[in-house]
Design a protein that fits this description.
- It comes from Gracilibacillus xinjiangensis.
- With 127 residues, the protein is an all-alpha fold.
- The chain is 65% helix and 0% strand.
- The chain contains 2 helices and no strands.
Amino acid sequence: MNNPIKKTAKKVVKKAYEKSPDSLKEKANDKLKEKAIEKMEEKVHGNAEEAKEKVQDVLLSAREKLGNVKEAGKNLQESISSANNHNKIKSYQEVKGIQHIKSYMDTKGVSNIKSSTNIKSSKDIKS
């Protein structure tokens, strides 16, 4: 929605430009080019600053993620190495000797096995 005042101002500027001498037209073109260049530079610098900030944010988040991954890797290596070291070699105290072997007297025989009369049923359970 163009403002009617702006429309009339544009028309006045165009007519003044058409009726002005060539030297003034050249100066006006030069000024217009300079202002356009300045505005473009401002836009470019503003966009560059935004892009720089975004890149820095992305790099910081990537750095944090890599730090977390590195820490998790260290923890994994420690857990693997500690698990391997624990089960690798048994000391002389952990090795069972001849006294730990069951003798024929320690094993259950036929007389130690429960018969069907000794097995509890649901009736034997107290409520």
